[in-house]
Specification:
The complex is a heterodimer of chains A (about 120) and B (about 110). Chain A is an all-beta fold. Chain A has no helices and eleven strands. Classes of the chains: A mainly beta (about 120), B mainly beta (about 110).
């Protein structure tokens, strides 16, 4: 149980285009999902917290107009990287918190984004 | 500011050589201390949650313990398949966000 999927697992796009990454909780409902970014040999950096049906809360320094997050249902959150640039190339990972009272976060397999 | 510090950064063990990984934390309003395992190019895999000092949890060759200031991940008789990066994280805030440490990269040699 507590499986989270991400799609796509990797994507290459050209500079200036937009890319959408999907995060789904497959066997549970997640009122809260999180988006992280990870650079090589570094730990996970929280980008934003998204709650179903409301606006995402972004961490300091994360551009909300660049990283659009939508949490339209209890099982799906999306991250859209708009007008991507090479510096946006990174490993993006989502997680979902198990239930309203739960503390554990279960992570997706990650999406490798390369902007050329 | 919440901080989670892990040591050592990297650890090389011979198969069967037991050891411990350390995670020290200063997280206000801590709502759980988490351990994850991450393999290269993959998302973190949940291992343990600890909520109060003195709590211990075990899973196969791994045992996690918690004090008021730090947590330890004990690895008993490790095998090469235990090689991975082990991440520690503290949960706080109304949304229970995780603050991650930088991880310990464990390599177990056959």
């Amino acid at each position: 149980g507590a499986v989270v999927s991400q799609h796509p697992s990797w994507v290459i796009c050209k500079s200036g285009t937009s890319v959408k990454i999907e995060c789904r909780s497959l066997d549970f409902q997640a009122t809260t999902m999180f988006w992280y970014r990870q650079f090589p040999k570094q730990s996970l950096m929280l980008m934003a917290t998204s709650n179903e049906g409301s606006k995402a809360t972004y961490e300091q320094g994360v551009e909300k107009d660049k990283f659009l997050i939508n949490h339209a249902s209890l099982t799906l959150s999306t991250l859209t990287v708009t007008s991507a640039h090479p510096e946006d190339s990174s490993f993006y990972i989502c997680s979902a918190r198990l239930g309203a009272g739960g503390y554990e976060q279960y992570f997706g397999p990650g999406t490798r984004l390369t902007v050329t | 500011e919440d901080q989670v510090t892990q040591s050592p950064e990297a650890l090389r063990l011979q198969e069967g050589e037991s050891s411990s990984l350390n995670c020290s934390y200063t997280v206000s309003g801590l709502r759980g201390l988490f351990w994850y395992r991450q393999d290269p190019g993959k998302g973190p895999e949940f291992l343990f949650t600890l909520y109060s000092a003195g709590e211990e949890k075990e899973k196969e060759r791994l045992k996690a313990t918690l004090t008021k200031k730090e947590s330890f991940l004990h690895i008993t008789a490790p095998k090469p398949e235990d090689s991975a990066t082990y991440l520690c994280a503290g949960s706080s805030g109304s949304a229970r966000q995780l603050t991650f440490g930088s991880g310990t990269q464990l390599t177990v040699l056959p």
